[in-house]
Write a sequence for this structure.
């Protein structure tokens, strides 16, 4: 099989994070009852006209600038005509010849950890269709048009990825950029981030691309990998047996881990694209682009490098911080204000705030909790007034309580009595175990665990790391 | 009192002086519709109850002195303007039972002023036609001669106003659909600059060409209505900010006329043009010269390309605009479809008439891959050329006079079998739509007892001056006051 190479191009559909739809004022929020969020415009009622939601322009420009693309001074909406019950106007408003974003690059690392640049062909704005829900039980199809008119940015890559691994890296990179910049919520279960993969194989050294198939609507990194791997294997098998690949659209069946033919090129629609006469071209001037450029935060790629080299953060820590612009902003602020070592701060953050957000599906921006508040909490732990075990409790409470952070910290502080008790326990344990003290003095630092264990026996619920710190102090003083 | 003969200003005066109430006036016109429209078929829907309700409301506004010039005046709307709660059919079986849940901007603006909607007028199906013969609800007759067409597609509006079943009406003009029926029925009609009047709620035929406007008995009446329906609308992205927002005042006086030059394009007076029409135009030019206007022969080349370009662009847009009528959400649906394809095919086969199907097919063909460049792109290039030709002509002269139609109203059934012949009746009007310019048609005489119309074409957003020039002419002539004999009584 090694004399075959794989060529993959991706079309990623990113749902833009806007309050209202791309051409109407209906809400874009997910999960309301069917057809409750479809206005006359979304329904394509006779006489209605699309009115562009300007905030989609900003998001598209932000994305374009983030990947170093050219922002089109003038881009045009086209109509893509085809009949389908969940496409109310029987045409989709999209951009064909003059997309809003052209070019740009995404840097990924391949399997050998070598950097590789993937060129982005274009990114264009379009509206989503509604949903058809087929019911065998009722022998009918239900149409839900809540999604109809939801703004999408379709990001098209050059066919430059050579494996499922690279495709997933590329997809993750894009996902990271769009979520970090709040261009999209990136929610893959809800379909806010999904992709079509164009896959072909050819003999190594062959200059021409092989016939490709298009794998439609894959909505998880895992499935992209599986679908491509299956498809590559399928194509190679056909070619090795002397067969030919049919140019077609295929669907990935996640239950059976196979791809299935959906329609061939012959059955493909002639979309009869033409410029939508209801909409004026989008015109963007240099001043607007500059303004957006200025307001863009540091990009995740730049931050990633900095976090790794300056703060020595792990890959996992970095990926958490960069999963949301708010986390990175928050941490940057805390690091600026605090004397505590950045890596430790990040640990505190992830084990408390992030885990709370993650557990309860919250938004950091929805809490009034400031960087200064978090510094106070960490300082209290550092000086020993607050047990590390109570960190989570304090954070949890800060989310619901109206009290100031210092009051909440006080509430969970070790009383002075507790602290005195621990000091006394440590002195006792040190005095009673001369042999272990000597072992420690001779360099066997592992013995610390013994001391901590002894102290903890009589002070359940205390913070072991705090006790450990105190024991070290005590032992070093001898 | 001969109320049917009165202008809007005169009717408004009667209302203000409480000589007649809006309710009485409304009932008066409804009675005219009931007695005359069986012959004409100019209305698809007459909503008596709603009209009376609006009239009572208007009378309150008048009593409170909260009224404007149009408060309490009855109007008829072409049946492609969406009217909330009132059937809006586009003269198609497809929308035979369609009741819009919202109002078109034009309707909404006039409702707010207290105008009274008498009903919805007949038209060519989806505004596709030049004779009002493609209506699902049957052809409309020309009040001047019941064997003649009233023109189209706003034939119902023109016929109704010509017979004075309504003081004024709205129409829409995609390729001449206001001006041509106005000419055939002896009326004044204005096709405004593209973008002057909101298209929101106006059921689309060809989006880049469609433009709503007034059809009335005089230039002055048209000006009054146009003043209220024009203006930028945030619901229509193609509506133009440049539209003059304030009310117009008649700027051109007789004294100004000597500084105004009007061009006569020789290409509009070739063999296609009926001799009577040509004679009438030159006769009316004498009146204009007497007022003080200067005339100059000009050339407007490539006008012969307008018809093919128009039919390709309009049909292409229509093929897409009319795709939404698929039997899924609104409008006609075939009974017991076997599957999705059957649903689509039969719904559209049953719901659309021949002319609509023809244009959908022309349009789909012109946009299909492999033919796009040859047809659609080429048509767009021609459109630009025609626009440029107009621009350079309007650099030399201030306005252009031209015939509205090559002939006067033709017989019902005369051109239905020959599409090219029918399409050619729009040769003088389509270039204006392609260029987006405003133009009015005014009555200037008769040929064999049938009215003759002439176009006044001006630069972008010069509607007021166009109507102003027409008004100066109408002060000197009485063509616009003529009423077809059979309808010239109470």
């Amino acid at each position: 099989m090694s004399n075959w190479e794989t060529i993959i191009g991706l079309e990623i559909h990113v749902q833009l994070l806007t309050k209202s739809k791309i051409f109407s004022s209906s809400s874009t929020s997910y999960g309301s009852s069917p057809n409750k969020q479809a206005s006359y415009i979304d329904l394509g009622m006779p006489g209605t006209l699309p009115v562009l939601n300007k905030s989609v322009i900003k998001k598209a420009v932000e994305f374009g600038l983030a990947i170093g693309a050219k922002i089109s001074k003038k881009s045009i909406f086209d109509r893509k005509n085809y009949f389908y019950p969940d496409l109310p106007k029987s045409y989709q408003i999209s951009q064909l010849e003059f997309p809003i974003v052209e070019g740009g690059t995404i840097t990924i690392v391949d399997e050998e950890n070598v950097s590789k640049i993937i060129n982005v062909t274009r990114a264009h704005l379009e509206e989503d269709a509604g949903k058809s829900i087929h019911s065998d039980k009722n022998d009918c199809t239900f149409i839900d048009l809540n999604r109809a008119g939801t703004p999408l940015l379709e990001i098209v890559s050059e066919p430059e990825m050579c494996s499922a691994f690279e495709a997933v890296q590329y997809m993750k990179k894009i996902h990271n950029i769009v979520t970090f910049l709040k261009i999209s919520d990136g929610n893959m279960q809800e379909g806010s981030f999904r992709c079509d993969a164009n896959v072909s194989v050819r003999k190594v050294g062959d200059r021409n691309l092989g016939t490709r198939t298009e794998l439609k609507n894959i909505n998880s990194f895992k499935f992209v990998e599986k679908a491509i791997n299956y498809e590559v294997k399928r194509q190679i098998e056909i070619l090795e047996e002397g067969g030919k690949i049919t140019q077609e659209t295929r669907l990935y069946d996640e239950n059976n881990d196979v791809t299935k033919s959906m329609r061939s090129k012959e059955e493909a629609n002639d979309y009869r694209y033409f410029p939508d006469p209801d909409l004026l071209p989008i015109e963007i001037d240099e001043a607007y682009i500059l303004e957006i450029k200025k307001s863009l935060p540091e990009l995740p790629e730049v931050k990633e490098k900095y976090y790794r080299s300056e703060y020595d953060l792990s890959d996992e820590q970095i990926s958490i911080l960069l999963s949301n612009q708010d986390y990175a902003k928050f941490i940057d602020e805390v690091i600026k204000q605090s004397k505590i070592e950045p890596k430790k701060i990040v640990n505190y953050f992830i084990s408390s705030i992030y885990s709370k957000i993650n557990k309860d599906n919250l938004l950091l921006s929805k809490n009034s909790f400031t960087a200064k508040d978090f510094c106070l909490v960490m300082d209290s732990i550092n000086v020993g007034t607050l047990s590390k075990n109570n960190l989570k409790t304090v954070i949890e409470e800060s989310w619901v309580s109206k009290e100031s952070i210092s009051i909440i910290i006080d509430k969970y502080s070790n009383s002075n009595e507790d602290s005195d008790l621990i000091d006394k326990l440590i002195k006792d344990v040190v005095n009673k175990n001369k042999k272990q003290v000597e072992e420690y003095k001779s360099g066997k630092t592992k013995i610390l665990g013994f001391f901590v264990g002894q102290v903890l026996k009589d002070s359940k619920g205390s913070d072991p790391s705090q006790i450990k710190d105190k024991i070290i102090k005590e032992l070093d003083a001898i | 009192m001969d109320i049917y003969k009165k202008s809007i200003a005169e009717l408004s005066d009667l209302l203000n002086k409480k000589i007649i109430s809006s309710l009485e006036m409304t009932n008066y016109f409804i009675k005219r519709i009931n007695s005359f429209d069986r012959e004409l078929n100019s209305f698809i829907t007459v909503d008596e109850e709603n009209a009376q309700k609006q009239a009572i409301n208007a009378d309150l506004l008048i009593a409170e002195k909260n009224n404007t010039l149009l408060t309490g005046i009855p109007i008829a709307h072409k049946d492609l303007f969406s009217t909330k709660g009132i059937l809006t059919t586009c003269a198609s079986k497809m929308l035979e039972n369609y009741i819009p849940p919202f109002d078109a901007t034009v309707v909404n603006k006039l409702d707010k002023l207290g105008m009274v909607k008498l009903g919805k007028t007949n038209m060519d199906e989806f505004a596709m036609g030049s004779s009002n013969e493609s209506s699902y609800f049957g052809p409309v007759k020309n009040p001047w001669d019941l064997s003649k067409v009233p023109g189209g597609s706003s034939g119902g509006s023109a016929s109704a106003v010509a017979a004075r079943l309504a003081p004024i009406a709205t129409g829409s003009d995609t390729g001449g659909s206001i001006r041509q029926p106005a000419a055939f029925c002896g009326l004044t009609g204005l096709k405004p600059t593209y973008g002057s009047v909101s298209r929101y709620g106006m059921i689309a035929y060809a989006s880049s060409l469609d433009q709503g406007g007034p059809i009335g008995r005089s230039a002055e009446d048209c000006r009054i209505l146009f003043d209220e329906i024009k203006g930028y609308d945030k619901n229509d992205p193609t509506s133009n900010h440049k539209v003059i927002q304030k009310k117009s005042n008649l700027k051109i006086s007789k004294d100004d006329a000597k500084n105004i030059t009007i061009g006569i394009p020789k290409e509009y007076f070739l063999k296609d043009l009926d001799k009577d029409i040509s004679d009438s135009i030159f006769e009316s030019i004498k009146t204009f010269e007497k007022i003080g206007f200067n005339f100059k022969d000009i050339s407007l080349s490539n006008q012969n390309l307008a018809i093919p370009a128009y039919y390709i662009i309009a049909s292409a847009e229509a093929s897409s605009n009319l795709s939404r009528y698929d039997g899924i959400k609104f409008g006609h649906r075939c009974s017991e479809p076997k599957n999705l394809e059957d649903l689509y095919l039969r719904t559209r086969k049953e719901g659309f008439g021949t002319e609509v199907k023809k244009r959908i097919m022309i349009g789909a063909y012109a946009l299909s891959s492999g033919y796009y460049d040859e047809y659609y792109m080429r048509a767009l290039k021609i459109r630009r050329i025609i626009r440029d030709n107009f621009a350079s002509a309007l650099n030399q002269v201030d306005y252009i006079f031209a015939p509205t139609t090559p002939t006067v109203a033709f017989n019902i059934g005369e051109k239905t079998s020959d599409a090219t012949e029918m399409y050619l009746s729009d040769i003088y009007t389509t270039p204006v739509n392609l260029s987006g310019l405003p133009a009015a048609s005014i009555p200037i005489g008769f040929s064999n007892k049938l009215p003759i119309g002439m176009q006044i074409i001006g630069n972008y957003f010069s509607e007021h001056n166009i109507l102003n020039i027409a008004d100066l002419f109408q002060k000197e002539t009485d063509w616009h006051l003529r009423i077809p004999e059979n309808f010239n009584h109470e």
User: Anything to note?
Assistant: DSSP finds 15 helices and eleven strands in chain B. Residues 86 and 481 of chain B are 32 Å apart (CA to CA). Chain B has a mean pLDDT of 96.
